[in-house]
């Protein structure tokens, strides 16, 4: 990633709409996707169509995966002037962090919730059973003794 804090205007971004020099704006981030054109799973033509423009809507309309969203940072060369770029870029980075955490968490959380969730159910059964056993045991021993 180049210096991602450089601020570009949309008209500056619009200078880069060639196959050899292709920039797009997504979520307030200015991305240089020249190198990505060849490997983009959706093909280079869709990227070239939005070259030099804000493609946030197009990017979202496709329903790109979290992995795809996480890739945005890799191609970021700056932020878009005006469009609360800094905040957006930071928000996206924060979202990615959350995504990473929640992605790594489930097995751990489920495991921990597993026995914790089972505990009240177990006690609900074990406590009355213990009380009943104590009561009948006590009664039985009393009978035997007398
Ligand atoms: C740097 C920006 C972009 C990145 C990193 C990116 C990344 C990806 C990735 C990883 C996929 C595979 C499917 C997935 O994981 O969601 C994908 C598919 C696709 N992308 Fe992008 N993409 C970018 C920009 C765009 C833009 C701007 C458009 C539309 C104008 C677009 C259109 C598509 C399409 C049509 C597919 C194929 C979806 C399918 O076959 O189901 N992408 N992209």
From TrEMBL:
One of its GO terms (molecular function) is metal ion binding. PANTHER family: CYTOCHROME B5 (PTHR19359), CYTOCHROME B5 A (PTHR19359:SF14). Belongs to the cytochrome b5 family. Gene3D superfamilies: Cytochrome b5-like heme/steroid binding domain (3.10.120.10). Keywords: Heme, Iron, Membrane, Metal-binding, Transmembrane. GO terms for cellular component: membrane. It holds the Pfam family Cyt-b5. Residues 5-81 form the Cytochrome b5 heme-binding domain. Its main location: membrane. This is Cytochrome b5 heme-binding domain-containing protein. It is found in: Membrane. InterPro entries: Cyt_B5-like_heme/steroid-bd (IPR001199), Cyt_B5-like_heme/steroid_sf (IPR036400), Cyt_B5_heme-BS (IPR018506), Cytochrome_b5 (IPR050668). It comes from Kalanchoe fedtschenkoi (Lavender scallops).
């Amino acid at each position: 990633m180049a210096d991602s804090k450089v601020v570009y205007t949309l008209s500056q971004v619009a200078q880069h709409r060639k196959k050899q020099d292709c920039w797009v704006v997504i979520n307030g981030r200015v991305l240089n996707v020249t190198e990505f054109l060849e490997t983009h799973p959706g093909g280079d033509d869709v990227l070239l169509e939005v070259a030099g423009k804000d493609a946030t809507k197009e990017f979202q309309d496709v329903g790109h995966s979290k992995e795809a969203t996480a890739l945005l940072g890799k191609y970021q060369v700056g932020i878009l002037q005006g469009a609360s770029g800094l905040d957006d870029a930071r928000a996206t980075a924060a979202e990615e962090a959350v995504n990473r955490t929640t992605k790594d968490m489930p097995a751990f959380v489920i495991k921990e919730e597993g026995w914790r969730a089972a505990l009240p159910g177990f006690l609900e059964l074990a406590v009355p059973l213990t009380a009943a056993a104590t009561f009948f045991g006590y009664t039985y021993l009393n009978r035997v003794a007398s």
